[in-house]
Design a protein that fits this description.
Layout (H helix, E strand, L loop, with lengths): L1 E10 L2 E10 L2 H6 L1 H19 L5 E8 L3 E2 L1 H6 L12
Antiparallel strand pairs: 1-2, 1-3, 3-4
């Protein structure tokens, strides 16, 4: 499914609005549309953070298709880190 995601981010006092079109897997979207879109939005925000040099970024608002607010869901997403498999 193709949809539009909009973000308003505050990067060290500078507010910025961006929007873009993204694909979301239909199977994931059918299970939980807001969470499926939030994962894509989270990845896009991480990309935006890399573009700004990983400066402190505050997520102010995230919506999809202009009416579905998923800000809180995006804020709750945490990256999955691989387990340490150290031999000691």
């Amino acid at each position: 499914m193709r949809l539009v995601i909009q973000t308003i981010l505050n990067v060290e006092g500078n507010r910025g609005f961006r929007n873009g079109e993204f694909n979301v897997r239909d199977s994931q979207f059918e299970k939980d549309p807001d969470f499926a879109v939030a994962v894509v939005a989270y990845e896009w925000i991480q990309q935006q953070k890399r573009e700004t040099g990983q400066r402190h970024t505050n997520i102010e608002k995230v919506t999809w298709n202009e009416v579905n607010d998923i800000t809180e869901i995006v804020k709750e997403i945490q990256p999955v880190l691989p387990e340490d498999n150290l031999p000691f």
